[in-house]
Design goal:
The protein is an alpha+beta fold. The protein has helices spanning about 40-50, 50-70, 140-160, and strands spanning about 20-25, 30-35, 75-80, 85-90, 100-105, 110-115, 120-125, 130-135.
Length: about 160
């Protein structure tokens, strides 16, 4: 009888919280990028309180609320397939309960790159909108995300011709 641990299934968590980007190439030629949360009780308190005195008075209560209700959901999950670009986000300032889901056909995505003028990922939807995605993520991580998404778009475009 062996004492080695059983192999982990693909959907199982390793038990430790991820602290770095997780980039997984999918079988269909796409990619899934998971941006870990940096959600802390101090970010939560600072987002809730604006006056110094109130922050001191209510911080023990806010700490309890954070410990009871805050999730460890990732800050964002970006998925690019041959047909669409999808983003699932939670805020690192709150409790991480509210999720925002957005998706667009890949053919409607114009630019998708690190923003040269601000923090974040610059996204344009052809003829509709342009915006900054993930402005609170460190520039080094945004550069890595942007490069991977650009590489996958090129790979998808080459495979479809």
């Amino acid at each position: 009888m062996s004492n080695s641990p059983a192999p982990m299934l693909e959907y199982e968590s390793s038990g430790s919280e991820p602290t770095t980007l997780e980039i997984v190439d999918t079988l269909d030629g796409g990619v899934t990028i998971t941006v870990p949360t940096r959600r802390t009780v101090w970010r939560f308190i600072s987002s809730m309180m604006s006056a110094d005195l109130l922050a001191v008075i209510f911080s023990p209560f806010a700490w309890v609320v954070f410990r009871l209700l805050a999730t460890r959901k990732p800050r964002a999950v970006l998925r690019m397939t041959s047909t669409e670009f999808a983003v699932l986000q939670t805020s690192d300032k709150g409790l991480g309960i509210v999720e925002t889901k957005q998706f667009w056909p890949l053919t409607e995505i114009g630019e998708l790159r690190p923003n040269r003028f601000e923090y974040g990922l610059y996204v344009t939807i052809r003829g509709k909108d342009s915006f900054n995605l993930l402005p609170d993520i460190p520039p080094a991580e945004i550069a890595c995300i942007g490069k991977k998404l650009q590489d996958v778009r090129k790979r998808i475009a080459l495979s479809s011709t």
